[in-house]
Amino acid sequence: MTNTVLHTANSRGHANHGWLDSYHTFSFANYYNPERINFGALRVLNDDTVAGGRGFGSHPHDNMEIVSIPLEGDLEHQDNLGNVAVIRKGDVQIISAGTGVFHSEKNKNPDKPVQFLQIWLYPNKLNGTPRYDQVSLDVKDRHNNFQQILSPNPDDAGVWIQQDAWFSLGKFDQGFQTNYHLKKTDNGVYAFVLEGDVTINGQQLHRRDGFGIWNVDQLHFTADSAGAEVLLMDIPMNI
Amino acid sequence: MHRLNILAIHRDTKILATVLRLINANGQWNGIGAITNEEAIELFHQQPVGIVLFCSGIDPESEEKLKAVFSTQKPAPIFLQHFGGGSGLLSAEIYEALAKQGH
C-alpha cells in the first residue's frame, strides 16, 4: 500500500536569527518535533536565507552527507581540506563529512541575500574519508525534465554521495505531465516544491510544501502553474 | 537540580569540544568527553552516566567493548550514535532517546 506524508510550507519550523532566516522541514537545532525527525535517510531539509556578507563560521561535521543547492545569490565555501569555492544557482555542492570536516559557508555578496537549500542525509557507511565536490549544471536541461543532480555513482550526472539516493530538479510549463520512476526498490521520494503549484499522485502541492511518498514504483507529476519548480529526492527508506 | 550526565566519545579533539559545548548549552545536561576508550571507561566509573554518545571514528570493536563495560551499570546507560558532529541534530537525538526510555 502506498504511504504518504504531507508537510505544508507553513507547518515547518522557523528560526530567524537576523543574519539567518531558516525554515526547517525536519527537527533541527532548537526546533524539535518528534513527528518530524526524518524521511528515511533524509534527515535535514533547511530552507535558508543568509544576509549579505554574513554566514556560517567554521564548524565541524561528521558522518553526514550534506548537499547545498543555491536558489539565489552566491555562497562562498571554505574547508579544512583546502577547498575554497563559490557556488551559484545551477550548482550543487556535496560535503561528505565522514570522519570529520570543518567548513564555513558565507554569502559572497555584501549587498544581497543568498538563498539555498541545506539537505543532510545519513550515509550508508560510517567513518568514510571526508570529501568535497561541486558541479555546475545547465539549468536549461531541467525545462520540462527532471534533471539528475545527484546520485550514488561517481560516473553519473551531478555530484555523488555515500548513500543510495538520487536527486532531480525540474522546471515545468503549466499543464506539463510526466512520470518519475523510482530508482530502487524500497526507496521513497520526498518532493519539495521550490516554486509554483504541482500535483503528485493526486496530492496538490504549493510553494515550499514537502510531500513524501513510499511503497510506490512511480510518481505521476503535473505542473499546475507556469514555471513550477520541484526537487525530487529518491531516498532509501530503511536506514 | 540533577543534570543528566552525557558521555560523548569522539576521536577528534576539536569536534568533541563542539559536541560538549552544545550538550552543555542545555541546563539539564552535563557533557563529559573522552577521546580514547581508556579515558571513556575512566570517566564512566567516576559518575553515573545516563547517555553514552558514540561519535565519529569509533570502530565497531571499540564500540562493542565499551558497551560491554558500560552495561555493567544498573540501569545501563542509553547508547546513542551521534550523526553530524556537534550539529543541529544533537538535541533531537537526545530528546528522541529519552522519549523512547519513557523520560
Summarize the structure.
Chain A: Residues 9-121 form the Pirin N-terminal domain. The complex is a heterodimer of chains A (239) and B (103). By secondary structure, chain A is mainly beta.
Polypeptide structure, described:
The complex is a heterodimer of chains A (239) and B (103). Chain A is mainly β. Chain A has 2 domains: 13-136, Sandwich (Jelly Rolls), CATH 2.60.120.10; 139-236, Jelly Rolls (Sandwich). Helices cover 0% and strands 54% of the residues of chain A. In chain A, the strands form 4 sheets. Chain A has a 7-stranded mixed β-sheet, with no helix packed on it. A 7-stranded antiparallel β-sheet of chain A has the order 2-3-4-11-6-9-12, with no helix packed on it. Chain A has a 4-stranded antiparallel β-sheet with strand order 5-10-7-8, with no helix packed on it. In chain A, β2 (13-16) and β3 form a beta hairpin. Chain A starts with a strand and ends with a strand. With 103 residues, chain B is α/β, with parallel strands linked by helices. Chain B has a single domain (4-100), classed as Response regulator (Rossmann fold), CATH 3.40.50.2300. In chain B, 41% of the residues lie in helices and 19% in strands. Chain B has 4 helices and 4 strands. Chain B has helices spanning 13-24, 37-44, 60-70, 90-100, and strands spanning 4-9, 29-34, 51-54, 78-81. Chain B has a 4-stranded parallel β-sheet with strand order 2-1-3-4. In chain B, α1 links the parallel β1 and β2. In chain B, α2 (37-44) packs parallel to α3 (60-70). The two termini of chain B are 16 Å apart. The relative contact order of chain B is 0.20. The A-B interface holds A 27-30, 32, 34, 37, 43-44, 59-64, 97-100, 102, 120, 122, 126-127 and B 11-12, 14-15, 18, 55-57, 59, 83-89, 91-92, 95-96, 99.
Biggest sheet details of chain A = 7 strands, mixed
Q: Give the CATH level 1 class of chain B.
A: Alpha Beta
Gyration radius of chain B, in Å: 12 Å
Largest interface: A-B, 24 and 21 residues
Q: Can you say what the CATH homologous superfamily of chain B is?
A: Response regulator
- Report the total helices of chain A: 0
Order of helices and strands of chain A: EEEEEEEEEEEEEEEEEEEEEE
Number of domains of chain A: 2
Strand content of chain A: over 45%
Global mean pLDDT of chain B: 93
Low-confidence stretches of chain A: none
| Secondary structure: helix percent of chain A | under 10%
CATH topology of the largest domain in chain A: Jelly Rolls
CATH architecture of the largest domain in chain A: Sandwich
The helical percent of chain B reads 40-55%
Query: Which structural category fits the helices and strands of chain B?
Result: alpha/beta
Mean pLDDT of chain A: 97
What class would the helix/strand composition of chain A place it in?
Answer: mainly beta
Q: State the major sheet of chain B.
A: 4 strands, parallel
CATH architecture descriptor text of chain B: 3-Layer(aba) Sandwich
Task: Tell me the CATH superfamily of the largest domain in chain A.
Answer: Jelly Rolls
